[in-house]
Amino acid sequence: MTVDRPPNGKATDLHFRMFTSDFGRYTRISTIFPTSSMGSPSTVKAARSRKSSRRLGSVGGLLLLSLIVSACGEELPANSLAPASERARNIDNLFWLTVIIAAVIFVLVQGAIIYTAIKFRRKKGEPERPVKQIHGNTRLEIAWTVVPALILAGLAVPTVQTIFENAEEPVNAINVTVTGHQWWFEYDYTDLGVITANEMHIPTDRDIFLTLTADAGDVIHSFWVPRLSGKRDLVPGHTNTLTISADTPGLYLGQCAEFCGLSHANMRLRVYAHEPAEFDAWVESQLAPADVPSETADEADLRAEGWELFISKGCSACHAINGTEAEGGGLNPGPNLTHFAMRDTFAGSLYDNTTENLRAWLANPSELKAMEPDLNRGMPNLGLSDDEITALVAFLQGLE
Ligand code: HEC
Ligand SMILES: [Cu+2]
Hints:
Layout: H1 12-32, H2 44-73, H3 86-119, H4 138-167, E1 174-181, E2 184-189, E3 194-197, E4 199-203, E5 208-214, E6 221-224, E7 231-234, E8 240-244, E9 250-255, E10 268-274, H5 276-287, H6 302-312, H7 315-318, E11 345-346, E12 351-352, H8 355-363, H9 365-368, H10 386-397
Parallel strand pairs: 1-5, 4-10
Antiparallel strand pairs: 1-2, 2-3, 5-8, 6-7, 9-10, 11-12
Heme C is lined by residues 183-184, 197-198, 310, 313-315, 317-319, 332, 334-335, 340, 343, 346-348, 362, 369, 378-380, 382, 392, 396.
């Protein structure tokens, strides 16, 4: 199935195309296993397949167990079982409450099954006798309808409570508007006047009130930093809100949690939590004017050459540098680069901000990160020479 691209050439249809092709794959897979394997259970073939599926089942169980155990172990930077904020803890508590209830039910049901299987099994030499049928037993049926309903109704109480508690608008919060782009996150600290990308800085013990959105013509993304809160979608032309915070300083990893096309897996993010004084210093450094070479700079200065290239090669059409003629925000806007050199990573937090990586990025961005610049998604290859790259890298690394 092919879908016509809308005249604006933007991304919404990509999602659909990927989805349908995936769907095609699933339907094909299902035709590989025709229902005939369920046909004659007495054949050797079926017995063998049952045995191997049992073996597969136990391997799967072991894998799952090792996954669970390894997930509980450490305070990994994106471990939702190691909450680092009040709201993340609310969610975690709810999770464990559910797990405990489910575990108790599991033990009771499995225990009853094992007990009856052993107690009522046919002993050796005992004659085969018809089993007493109990289906249609009204009392039993009412019991196993009402009990689960009560359990779910009971669980709904703390669930709804937590949803409302976590959604409460915080007082004295820092406001940040988060915009999802294919394939990076933009942060606009609306009260502080700071704009940055992928790496969010926050003070500890303070609520950060996020307004989440995406540009019209983009696709749905989802903001998720597991240790700091739940996930929330960034929907084109619509705003959602989410409050995050961090108890302790540190680096918290996150990533886009809604399939958003080609580089969805490369759309990562980082939250750096600082002591409040350190955060204030970060804000101050972000508000400082961009370190752009002056017009009177020495012609031989590499950085001045880089700045000139930044304008002449059209970088400034997509990338803003605050307080300069580079205004960005074009057809296919890229991250604000005002203090780019202060970022640890770039390109959706995929790469360390090193000379080598930057050179490779400028030489051919799509080689480092799958993008579709021809369809206005991602950064185009600008066909730069080695010398031009050297000058541009010097310029970018001067943006402290
Ligand atoms: C057509 C628009 C466009 C042009 C022109 C463009 N870029 Fe980009 N650039 C982007 C987009 C979009 C991204 C984000 C890619 C991603 O991470 O998915 C980006 C990312 C970057 C980044 C990484 C920023 C970060 O924090 O992740 C750097 C550095 C960069 N571009 C430098 C340049 C330079 C230097 C030029 C000129 C030679 C240039 N760009 C020209 C659109 C553009
Ligand atoms: Cu995304």
